[in-house]
Amino acid sequence: MNSISAKEINERLTAGETLNIIDVREVAEVKSGRIPSSIHLPLGFLEFRMNELDKKKEYIVVCQSGGRSIQAVKFLDYQGFNVTNMNGGMLAWEGKID
């Protein structure tokens, strides 16, 4: 399974790179802030909404601490998506939030 650090994502975003980030946390968790430009797609809805994603794109998946994003990455990878897990989740995030 591919993984990336929160620091590396922040550096890439700060450098102006466009990343496709999926936040799989619940609505109440996202209210406390999310990575700018991330897509909110709760883990429980992933199976039903994965048709909104493009298999030609690379996605980075994030949750609160890393457990749910690992589940999401495994599921999406099995479905043929190019996905990477953000290690440590939002607890490791030190960048800007919306």
From TrEMBL:
<feature type="domain" description="Rhodanese">
    <location>
        <begin position="15"/>
        <end position="98"/>
    </location>
</feature>
<dbReference type="InterPro" id="IPR036873">
    <property type="entry name" value="Rhodanese-like_dom_sf"/>
</dbReference>
<dbReference type="Pfam" id="PF00581">
    <property type="entry name" value="Rhodanese"/>
</dbReference>
<protein>
    <submittedName>
        <fullName>Rhodanese-like domain-containing protein</fullName>
    </submittedName>
</protein>
<dbReference type="InterPro" id="IPR001763">
    <property type="entry name" value="Rhodanese-like_dom"/>
</dbReference>
<dbReference type="InterPro" id="IPR050229">
    <property type="entry name" value="GlpE_sulfurtransferase"/>
</dbReference>
